[in-house]
Design goal:
Elements: E1 4-8, H1 20-38, E2 42-49, H2 54-62, H3 67-79, H4 81-84, E3 91-94, H5 98-113, E4 117-127, E5 132-134, E6 154-163, H6 169-175, E7 182-183, H7 189-197, E8 203-204, E9 206-208, E10 217-218, E11 221-226, H8 228-233, H9 235-238, H10 246-252, E12 256-260, H11 264-277, E13 285-289, E14 292-294, E15 297-298, H12 309-316, H13 318-328, E16 335-337, H14 339-368, H15 382-385, H16 393-414, H17 416-422, H18 424-445, H19 450-462
Parallel strand pairs: 1-2, 1-12, 2-3, 7-13, 12-13, 14-16
Antiparallel strand pairs: 4-5, 4-6, 6-8, 9-11, 10-11, 14-15
Helix pairs in contact: 2-3, 12-13, 13-14, 13-16, 14-16, 14-18, 16-18, 17-18, 18-19
Length: 474
Amino acid sequence: MGKQVYITTTLPYVNAEPHVGTALEFVQADAYARVHRLMGDEVLFNTGVDEHGQKIFDKAKENGEEPQAYADRLAATFSDLKQALNLSYDRFIRTTSPAHMASAQEFWRRCDAAGDIYKKNYQIKYCVGCELEKTDSELDENGCCPLHPTMPIQLIDEENYFFKLSAYNDKLLELYKNEEFVVPRHRINEIISLIEREGLQDFSISRRADKMPWGIPVPGDESQVMYVWFDALINYVSTIGWPENEKEFEKWWPVVQFAGKDQVRQQAAMWQAMLMSAGLPPSKQIYIHGFLTVGGEKISKSVGNVISPFEVVEKYGTDALRYFYLRHVHPFEDSDVSWEAFDEWYTAGLVNGLGNLVARVMKLAEQHLEEPIDTKDVRAMPDVWNPIEKFEFNRGMDSVWSYIQDLDGLIQEQKPFEVVKTNTIQGQKQIKHLVIEIARIAKHLEPFMPETSEKILAAIHANKKPENLFPRLT
């Protein structure tokens, strides 16, 4: 009997349509979820969109739309990724849903009851792109946020509610003693150093509704709306029924979180302290991935280097994009992508690699075997799925492609296409072995490239060479 595994991505803002960097996290989490299902675990996979906050309010105003109408339109483009990327998520949460808003308000009440919320006047420098306060040390020489250099820093001077993050320094350090809590471990070192050096600072958790009305009203004070980060993080518990459905919550919590390297503070410090304040257990684990860059630069509409995942899928196919993400993108560090790289990876790994191998073997099988091979008892390849538990997707995929190379080498060495002409029984034996081995590859590719896996297994069961799995680029 397997275990319960709850997985969530972060929720991307709906201030722009998804790009290849946004979609990366969805595919990584999907592969992780599919591996666990195949290993017999019961999985709940959550994703969705974050629809509140200043930059969404500003973008809607810029477009001449009401914020909800704008959010509805953009949320649909993220929902479309399910089909485009063949995602197997179970929940798609929107932070404008009534259930989430009620959950966020109850979470606020519990943190307030714990004595961790207070009101004060303050002045800060604020990056709308990050939706985060910035200290001078976090800004570049031009006084801009390095992640959003084209967006001017805002100066905020108002009275808001604050969360006592400073009260949780010691408890967070205790949590971080778990070496597996943040993967890779080095991503949490900066926060540990900051706590030990000067401690974490309290952070603002509301905005004045007369200035920025697009948010969840603060319980008992409708002159303020919740700060987007306080609201959005709560989706991880609201989507599993908290606080109304205690049974559902206890079944699934704690969660394995997927997040980008720009979210360590929010996910590993702010959110964990909020959970402690509300009397809830911390997350189980947080996996932090790197950024995708194009030509060495962070993907940005202002730079003009945005690549749409829908365009990549249109050119190469869904499983090709999944292959790019899971084999050629480093799971922990930044990776550079480009149309030229996609062409190269597609041709080398898929057209000349997997596609060519399957075509060669199944053509031999169709010509020389009288009936399909039984493949239900193919041997396991532990070096393919085991690395996924450590979020090392590229290692798992490299193991498959190493095996593809080995089988290509075996064909060249044994030459079954010649042997079968002079020694039918021996040649058929060699071909049967090759068919079983490509079935083994197909079954282990199921979490990573599900459509391709299905096509290969269908060809084996029909004892027919499949249609070209990966057509050559024209």
